[in-house]
Amino acid sequence: MRRRLYANCLNRNFDEVLAEVREIPFESMDYNFLKVYLAKSCQWGHTESVNHIWYKYVVRKNTLLVDPELLCSIGNLAIYDRKNFMPNDIYKYYVKHYGREETPKNSQWRYELLRIKTESFARTTSTKTNFREKWKVFLQDMDNCLPLITRFRVRDFPNLVESYRDETQDGKDLMVEYLFEEKMVAVKNPYSLPMLLNFMLLETSFSADLKMSLFKRFFTVHQFLPKEDSVMILVRACSNDAYRLNDLFGFCGDFSLSEMSPRIFQPVKKVFNEKQLDQGSFPLLAARINSSTSH
């Protein structure tokens, strides 16, 4: 039986493995196999197997120790399987077994598991919960709990992006106020408000003029918050509009080039090359391109 279980597991015959594992008495289970089975089930996304092992051998029996990397894999599966309570249970399990050790690696696991918890709430509540409540959860679970040096990036929160996109127009307009006024929960991390701005810069229903206006107003009020991700989003959004790009880099005139990744300028150079633009007509944009080339 043992050899057959391993073979079926490695050959991804997970339905057969699960049917057989369900019949194995608890005291007869091979825990070395169970660890392999859990890892392979996570790797290939067999949620039925993952759920069975998690609830029977981890939650109820507490006999299988799951490492942080595998906890993250289980959590990511739970997001897309809409298991809304599971990511919270996974995070509690992590804190219980690994939370006392303050190491750089454990900080990464903690960030990832809290991100999974936040994303799961955003996805599983769907449109039943408005975006400001989901933003509140992000602030409580991540902004207020993780070190201030933690960098939040919009690409790590696709379900929050989708939640903002699905918000009503009134809800979207209301969130603009959160960029400039403290609401509900204090914002501590310097990357949080720029990420909220970036949700809006990615919003397809907002015009380019509105996005540029929001960007300028935000960084006029919050001059010392990080700009790079926001600039990159606008550059991509305006990649075929040299006038807006010229305006953007004119506004960022005092923004040190050393803070901006060279990748920001790649689409800008493409516009100049493809459209054979006169650099004299777009001096600020041309200056940025020339400066980035020389660095």
UniProtKB/TrEMBL annotation:
A single Gene Ontology CC term: mitochondrial inner membrane
Name one molecular function that GO assigns to this entry.
Answer: translation initiation factor activity
What's one Pfam family the UniProt record gives for this protein? PET122
Name the domain of life this protein comes from. Answer: Eukaryota
What InterPro entries does this protein's entry cite?
A: Pet122
Would you kindly state one Gene Ontology biological process term found in this protein's UniProt entry?
positive regulation of mitochondrial translation
What protein am I looking at? Answer: Uncharacterized protein
Which source organism?
Huiozyma naganishii (strain ATCC MYA-139 / BCRC 22969 / CBS 8797 / KCTC 17520 / NBRC 10181 / NCYC 3082 / Yp74L-3) (Yeast)
Name of the gene encoding the protein in the UniProt record: KNAG0G01690
